Amino acid sequence: MAPSKLSLESRKKHHILTIAGSDSSGGAGIQADLKTIEAFGCYGSSVLTGLTAQNTQGVQAVHEVPAEFVVQQLKSVISDDIPTCIKIGMLTNASIIKSIAKELKNLNTINILDPVMISTSGHTLLPEDAIEALKELYPSINHFTPNIPEAIKLTNYSKLKSKFNSTSNGSNNVNNNLNLEEMILLAKETNLKTGAFTVLLKGGHSSIKRQELLNLKGKYKIIWEQSDEDSDDIEVLSLFSKYIEIQQQQHQDNLVVDILVNKGEIQCLFVNKKIESKNTHGTGCTLSTAIACTYATESREGPDDWNFRMFKRAIAYTQSAIASATPFGQGHGPLNHSHLSVKRTLPPPTKHNPHPFLSHLIQSNLPLWKSYVQHPFVVQLGKGTLPRECFEHYIKQDYHYLKHYARAHALGAYKADSFEDISAFTDIASHVARESQMHVAYCESFGITLEELEKTPESAPCAAYARYVIDVGTQGDLLDLYMSVASCLVGYGEVGLWLKKQVDKGEAVLEGNLYKRWMEDYSGKDFLNAVERGIENLERRVAENPPSETRLTQLTHIWHECVRLESAFWEMGLKLQK
Amino acid sequence: MAPSKLSLESRKKHHILTIAGSDSSGGAGIQADLKTIEAFGCYGSSVLTGLTAQNTQGVQAVHEVPAEFVVQQLKSVISDDIPTCIKIGMLTNASIIKSIAKELKNLNTINILDPVMISTSGHTLLPEDAIEALKELYPSINHFTPNIPEAIKLTNYSKLKSKFNSTSNGSNNVNNNLNLEEMILLAKETNLKTGAFTVLLKGGHSSIKRQELLNLKGKYKIIWEQSDEDSDDIEVLSLFSKYIEIQQQQHQDNLVVDILVNKGEIQCLFVNKKIESKNTHGTGCTLSTAIACTYATESREGPDDWNFRMFKRAIAYTQSAIASATPFGQGHGPLNHSHLSVKRTLPPPTKHNPHPFLSHLIQSNLPLWKSYVQHPFVVQLGKGTLPRECFEHYIKQDYHYLKHYARAHALGAYKADSFEDISAFTDIASHVARESQMHVAYCESFGITLEELEKTPESAPCAAYARYVIDVGTQGDLLDLYMSVASCLVGYGEVGLWLKKQVDKGEAVLEGNLYKRWMEDYSGKDFLNAVERGIENLERRVAENPPSETRLTQLTHIWHECVRLESAFWEMGLKLQK
Description:
Two copies of one chain form a homodimer. Chain A is α/β, with parallel strands linked by helices.
């Protein structure tokens, strides 16, 4: 059996610290970082290096945070809980860089540096002397994620250019649209100059042609989007989307290649289709933080243990965040950081609220539930004033109902896929068969033979309910079946307990009550144990497999239908309906 | 039919701006606010008023942001996109308060003020002169959420005290542990003095006895936790949890009451059991931001239109965030802001990636998929080199398989709950019945009569596959059934397309090929349309009802089993297996 979600929920989250600037518009900086960290289910803290007054159109002003206060924030965070990974973004000035470099030396954290130098909107965020100071930070950096302009700046690419004499077309223009070979050299050079354990050179500024990649096939590991393997020849993945067809026509030669280098060796090329979108504000912040999160959450042997999947997951997250973003603001809008999350329809079970599903079911229509468990039939039964003929009619029909109820559990055993569930269902079916003996005994005491009991025609309310349960169980899955039998089990437990309480309060009587055995059976330990197991089972199934909104609506509908049919069943007894 | 999730995803999120301080440890301030906003699926931006160097043990230092820069941030945000709600938290000093008050006057936003004056750890965060300045802000505030010490400070409660002569026990100590009547007066007084549209007086500092509340029953609307109605007498909700039993024994008289006042009138009392927890750092920030989110997301007539549910949902979210939090740091740990989210197991469909589910299914075991759709049987069939007896054996068995495949779709029609689905399934069943005519025609051309065809014994690989499909369909729900028939449909489409491509590349032949009709049928428009509809249907079902991890594993398992059985089916043909 899968571990209960309760224990999963209570596991401490991975702590990711971001050292970066604030973007008031919420799309980049620590805001993007914290949103990404939430998306990956980690815990985010932040040290601010500078504040920007910013929106999707640009950076309007910057407020630098004093270096001492930056250090003070960092000390406050790490003196309390050491993060697994630290993502370092905008560093504002040389003084802050030097202070952070000093602090990081003594920490055994995995550090990812995204050298934020220019905002998406083109604003310079790191002065020249600060770029020099970055060298002091490099020894502490595990993963480094520059884009092409940043890598060119940091490696002084103009010197590297001479190496291209043989391939260059003689032009003196060094623009950012490098070809793949140039990018590979740049990535290696960046790895060499920074000494970072890995460098991921982000290729978003260059468009790479498919043929360039095919030329390198076999030489380097190429990881195409959405696959670790070569899925180029799977037809159904591309043929049935007019969107993709259009994209393929327009952009099949417009690929983005991110290059991963480790210890001077190219490890792989991550290839993605270019997404045409204005919503790219904060892409760099998001990707580097996503790497921190995937690094923290994948199991590792040590800080230098890594795999392709970490980078691939982070890149895929960032791609989907761009692709699923909606326009926001007047300029470059933010990414959709929460695209990986679905809203939980029920809170997780906690000690404080151990039965959120049952609570939802009952409270989603409390008057309906009360009309069932506190029905006049029940009230009169408790007082002993219920006419015997009503009870007689009810108990005969309930005898029929129980047969179908037992069959429903047998169907549950058929639908189960573990021996544990098979046993549980067949146990209940046997238990229900025994429960029918009380009905036989009551009928005998009323002078009704077993033969007469068996021959009693099924009333419409009984058939409506019993056949509904069987049909839901056949039509749906095991949980649907479970839902269709739950309100009877839980409701009779409620009735048993409620009547007991009424007896204590003097509003019902037990001694001398014709229905004493019935009342005792449904408030007895045996039956209540079964109710408790049933509730735990229901909660466990739902916690292990959290329902979507659509699914919760379906399940709640089955519950309400059964509650309504239960209520009609009492009514049948009271009104002697056929 | 429910609207597709694709359109839901692409709806612009509600924009919530937080004007507050930064908490480096991530548990309070804008960090808590942004995490809360993410949890509610809204979009968060932030204006920083001050930075704290802080952890779970306390505030170690504060850096004030110049008032002009606060205004600059606010202007950057609102000049780009007007938020629906603004939550205002720590304001640091009088100058900032006055600047913000001036800006808010011209904005038509819903403003929630949480007067952060003292941190959970006891640090004073607002000087005396700033408290006076708050009066300038009040006219712009819609909802005000002070706790008891804050409300006492802001209303100068000592004056109010004289009103308690009749009820007070003569003690001169004014401590924060007010009784319920005192809290009600305080809430009204706060509403009066601030002029806020509503005041939610947070009662966490006072323990209220159950009897105090019962005395007020009928006088005020009392909303017990997890219910809008009186569910006190539902036994099953409390009896089966030993945790709750313990809590009831220990704390049934330890209730937290939050009081909602609107225009001087008490609207309701929200009652919750006190949660004993150290993880309460940032509770106030979280609750006020949660109110901003519930206010933004509930449908409203206008800014002053409100309902109980907004406050109740925000309080319930905060309670669960405390209850589900795990220890973090050495002092008061943060709340679990993400308890409402579950990780999506598949990215939402986008134009860029329209079939994430199919992509997952195929790529989760690409070698298995290829071993099916590019099986030697298929390769030889395309080249026309497949021995006729192999094809004959295959086509006879496939005739049997199709009968069960049609039955599976009829079972789908039985399991469907819309006329649309019923028609879709019966249409496919008819289509499959027609498809069998090709089999009959091939057999006739091989000299096999229909009678002989019908009498051919079902081979083990055919029975294994066909009966698996029927059993999965019977055992599970409609989606399970859908999964069990999908890999045949999609795989034959793939084979049809792939063979067509092989013909184009000269690696397969059509003219003069004995299997021409077969190849043309499965690459024909009719069949490929059915494949496309099948894929769209699958994606829609999964997007509308996003699968949990457990569910996705089940669905993927069915897919892989069928792919394996399909592969074995070709193998049967090639090896003439009985």
